[in-house]
Fold this protein.
Amino acid sequence: MNDTPLPVTIRDVGLRDGLQILARTVPTAHKIEWLRAAHAAGLRELELGSFVPARLLPQLADTAALVEAARALPGLVASVLVPNLKGAQAAIEAGADAMLLPLSASRAHSLANLRKTPDEVVGEIARIRALRDAAGSRCLIEVGISTAFGCTLQGRVDEDEVLRLVQAVLDAGAERVGLADTVGYADPLQVARLFTRAFAVAGPRLGCGHFHDTRGLGLANVFAAWQAGVRRFDACVGGIGGCPHAPGASGNVATEDLAYLFASMGVPTGLDLHALLALRERLAQRWLPGEALHGSVWRAGLPKTMTEAMAKETA
């Protein structure tokens, strides 16, 4: 009998979610070094940017160039954020492997972020699916339901509304859907309850948990989602990132902390912790000097028990 837990996939979203909230623009050459180092550390899913007008997010204006660079890396799934039909067309033309379509469960956040109501966004998702199919593209369509656990603009978000939108986006043609704690309001019991209910609606098409560590509960919420059956999570090296239209929402869970959490429990992720910590150091010293980075493992280091176990595995 094999008692090894099912592997977990971690998608690093630093090159999109991590950079969109910063005032600085990282040169394309540095971003390509970043994605290559992330791939070398074992990451096989990366969110590389977003196809939005450069005047709105100049930090992400080189997304097509990053997708092209990513296609040279074996086994790498390159995803991009797509807010509308025009962005979807650009993602298809660039050859992205997956497009992430944002849909807010909060009406107030949806209007601030996309200038559309949630149901108007669902209609756009259906048009994007039709466009993708007509183009003969294999680009996977994933919907991330943001503010699923609460909203700084609206406050409480009804769980039944979240579940209604999960069903609506699947009916509109989404192939995968995830739930996001965009503003760091969630608690572990809420996470376990909502993901359990969402699995009853979406089954295996419920494919991702996205958590922020804004109030220190990021890893606890990841663990609760994992216990509920989630096996794929978003994270950012250095714990950077956030939504410009969600005040106080900065701070994704750190990729290296997430990798450590699962490694400590014997859950395979395919990630090299030492390489992740080296990547974080390059962010701090070379690509994002002066920016506030977060997380815990980089400060405390790996415990002796874990380094000894790693040594035995490689002996």
